[in-house]
Design brief:
InterPro entries: Acyl_CoA_acyltransferase (IPR016181), GNAT_dom (IPR000182). One of its GO terms (molecular function) is acyltransferase activity, transferring groups other than amino-acyl groups. This protein has 223 residues and is of the alpha+beta class. It has a domain of 151 residues: Gcn5-related N-acetyltransferase (GNAT) (Aminopeptidase), CATH 3.40.630. The chain has six helices and eleven strands. The strands form two sheets. Strands 1-2-6-7-8-9-11-10 form an eight-stranded mixed beta sheet. A three-stranded antiparallel beta sheet has the order 4-3-5. Helix 1 crosses helix 3 and helix 5 packs parallel to helix 6. The protein starts with 6 loop residues before the first strand and ends in a 9-residue tail after the last strand.
Length: 223
Amino acid sequence: MCDPPHSVLHAVLVDMREYQFRPGELNQLAELYCDIWPEYPWFEYMKCNVCGRYYSQAEFESGNPLNPCNHWPASLERAWIPSEVEPYIASAINEEGFIGTLLVCPEHGIIGFSWGFLMSSEEVSKKVAHEFPFETPVFYYSELAVRNAFYCRGKGYGRMLVSYVVDEARKRFPNYPSVLRTNDLSVAYKLFMRAGYEQLPHTDVNANRVVMLADSCSRLHTI
């Protein structure tokens, strides 16, 4: 059982498994998800469905990306579509070992989210394209985002979301490692470093994409 919601400037953190989604809110969350990743520093607007390389909106519209993959442009598809993300979110909530929180405020609804869940070492290795030899399950820290809007900036919302998830992971899975994937130009990268994750040597098809590891959740801490 998680601690009671924490209030900050009219926004509260709520446990995703206990939250009662009102009509349209799951779709609102999916739309927020899709709005965030095309922005800096991710630029995940279009995606190659063969190699997984992402392209920004500017690259796609210009038709002249820097260092395109071998499948450009025939294999491109929209990177994120709300109608596809919504069932992904619903499925994630039911994953084994799920830990997730939403940042909700009366004025703007859901403005942030963060979650992770348990995966096998083989599943994580395949997902992040980095080999892990762990014999135990792995807590995969899957998502972290805050709406890119003036009323969300400088409020410490990202720190709150990370602290919630790592605190729960430390309590529930102290002996399991934790893995995540992020962008080293993002604010999230700095938050994860502060929480106890370390960057691993890794090469990704997407520039600045990095893999991070905490060799046990007991080493994670709130920030």
